[in-house]
DNA sequence: TTTATTTAAGATAAATTTGTCCGAAATAAG
DNA sequence: CTTATTTCGGACAAATTTATCTTAAATAAA
């Protein structure tokens, strides 16, 4: 469904959010360990998330990553996915046709608009806050 | 959503079905043209669909691909996708965790089971017959 | 039987995604 | 100022997916 980059990015962002709610910066190394992701690859993804303004990065000792606490509630899963995978999950024909819409649909067009709309709604409605809180109180987990 | 291989496979199967309903075999070349897919790559996909028993292939002059007419109604979109992409779309954690279920869920587990169930139901409920008929009567298209 | 045609199969190549490595830049602390 | 730490950025490498090419095998028809 999502790319590996996106999977790592989502997990990392949730972890950073949990720590940020406790006013703690986290290092790349810690993130990669807690999220079970390759360090160097995770670095790249965090870089792009930082450029997208979803997370903040700080160099040097005591540096690391964090998320502005006020943002945690407004950031949606959709924003993270979009920052990493772009909008290719949300737009485009299910069979790869350039020209496919309600007036000139591919054979699966109608079937697809429904589930894609579901997916989109889900991503737009789930906040980073709720994901981070679930992890924080031990309801969910990020490893294994 | 689907791999390129799967997109080509679905389109090819629908096209073969339309022709088979008219009792006509179609060649690889014709399929690739009508479906706008790379010939050699399409050949590979058709090969695996033939091995899966979804389509029949015949060598030599007057050879080509066809689908047993009685099957067209029972073959579901799910079968085609499964034959090409396997079950990786239907199973597995949305964040790539090995261990992720209702008792020990990842942060997006509950959100995902819903839309995945939707997708699965959609694929299991749409028959090749209905897709082929839509194309045949000009309601849908496969090119561009 | 010979020939032309068509799919099968395996090797190879290109493109993309995933992942690694290393030096540069920033920066906190001694 | 120097040093240690941490992210940044670019080059590089491996793995996977997508795509091509060539030869073999099957087979219909002359």
Rounded mean pLDDT of chain A is 97
**Biggest sheet record of chain A:** 2 strands, antiparallel
CATH class descriptor of chain A: Mainly Alpha
**CATH homologous superfamily designation of chain A:** Winged helix-like DNA-binding domain superfamily/Winged helix DNA-binding domain
Number of strands of chain A: 2
Oligomer category: homodimer
Second CATH tier, the architecture of chain A? Orthogonal Bundle
Quick structural gist:
Two copies of one chain form a homodimer. Chain A contains seven helices and two strands; from the N terminus they run αααββαααα. With 144 residues, chain A is mainly alpha-helical.
Structure description:
2 copies of one chain form a homodimer. In chain A, a hairpin with a 5-residue loop joins strand 1 (56-58) and strand 2. The mean pLDDT of chain A is 97. In chain A, helix 1 crosses helix 2 (28-35). The first copy, chain A, has a two-stranded antiparallel sheet. Chain A has a single domain (4-136), classed as Winged helix-like DNA-binding domain superfamily/Winged helix DNA-binding domain (Arc Repressor Mutant, subunit A). Helix content of chain A is 54%, strand content 4%. By secondary structure, the first copy, chain A, is mainly α. The first copy, chain A, has helices spanning 4-21, 28-35, 39-51, 69-72, 77-85, 109-125, 128-136; strands spanning 56-58, 64-66. Chain A contains 7 helices and 2 strands, in the order H-H-H-E-E-H-H-H-H. Chains A and B meet through helix 1, helix 6 and helix 7 of A and helix 1, helix 6 and helix 7 of B.
């Amino acid at each position: 469904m999502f790319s590996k980059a996106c999977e790592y990015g989502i997990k990392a962002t949730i972890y950073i959010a949990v720590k940020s709610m406790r006013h703690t910066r986290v290092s790349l190394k810690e993130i990669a360990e807690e999220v079970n992701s390759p360090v160097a690859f995770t670095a790249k993804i965090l870089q792009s998330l930082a450029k997208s303004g979803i997370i903040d990065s700080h160099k040097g000792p005591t540096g690391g990553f964090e998320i502005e606490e006020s943002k945690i509630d407004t950031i949606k899963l959709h924003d993270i996915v979009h920052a990493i995978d772009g909008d290719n999950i949300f737009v485009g024909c299910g069979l790869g046709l350039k020209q496919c819409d309600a007036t000139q649909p591919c054979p699966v067009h109608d079937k697809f608009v429904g589930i894609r709309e579901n997916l989109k709604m889900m991503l737009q409605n789930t906040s980073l806050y709720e994901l981070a809180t679930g992890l924080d109180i031990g309801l969910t987990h990020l490893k294994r």
